[in-house]
C-alpha cells in the first residue's frame, strides 16, 4: 500500500494545470506509460512520471499524435536512454583499460 507523500501528485490537479483530460492519463496508464495510484478514493500520479506525462500530453494535444504513436515514442526514448547509459558504461571501462 502506498503512503501519500511528496512523491504523489493529484491527478485532477495535474490535469487542470496542464489543461488535459484525466481520461488521457488513464489511457497512458493502460499502456503502462505511467502509474496511477488510488489512496483513500483519490487518484494520484507519481512525481517521477510528470516530465513524461507533460511531454506526451504536448505531443498528443499539440501535434495530434495518437496513443499508439505516443507508446512508440516513449519506447524509443527509453531505448535511447538505455543505449546512452550503455555507451557511458563502455566508455568508462575503456578508459580504465587505457
| Morphology call | elongated
N→C terminal distance: 49 Å
Q: If you average the pLDDT, what whole number results?
A: 93
Count the E strands: 3
Low-confidence residue ranges: none
Order of helices and strands: EHHEEHH
Named CATH topology: Multidrug-efflux Transporter Regulator, Chain: A, Domain 2
Strand order in space, largest sheet: 1-3-2
Organism: Cyclobacterium amurskyense
Protein name: MerR family transcriptional regulator
Pfam families: MerR_2
What do these coordinates show?
- The structure is a single chain.
- The protein has a single domain, classed as Orthogonal Bundle (Multidrug-efflux Transporter Regulator, Chain: A, Domain 2), CATH 1.10.1660.10.
- It contains four helices and three strands.
- It has a three-stranded antiparallel beta sheet with strand order 1-3-2.
- Strand 2 and strand 3 form a beta hairpin.
- The chain is elongated.
- The N and C termini lie far apart (49 Å).
Amino acid at each position: 500500500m502506498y503512503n501519500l507523500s511528496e512523491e504523489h501528485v493529484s491527478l485532477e490537479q495535474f490535469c487542470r494545470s496542464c489543461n488535459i483530460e484525466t481520461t488521457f492519463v488513464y489511457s497512458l496508464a493502460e499502456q503502462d506509460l505511467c502509474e496511477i495510484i488510488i489512496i483513500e478514493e483519490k487518484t494520484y500520479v507519481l512525481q517521477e512520471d510528470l516530465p513524461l506525462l507533460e511531454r506526451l500530453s504536448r505531443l498528443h494535444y499539440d501535434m495530434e499524435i495518437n496513443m499508439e504513436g505516443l507508446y512508440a515514442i516513449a519506447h524509443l526514448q527509453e531505448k535511447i536512454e538505455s543505449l546512452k547509459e550503455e555507451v557511458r558504461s563502455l566508455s568508462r571501462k575503456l578508459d580504465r583499460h587505457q
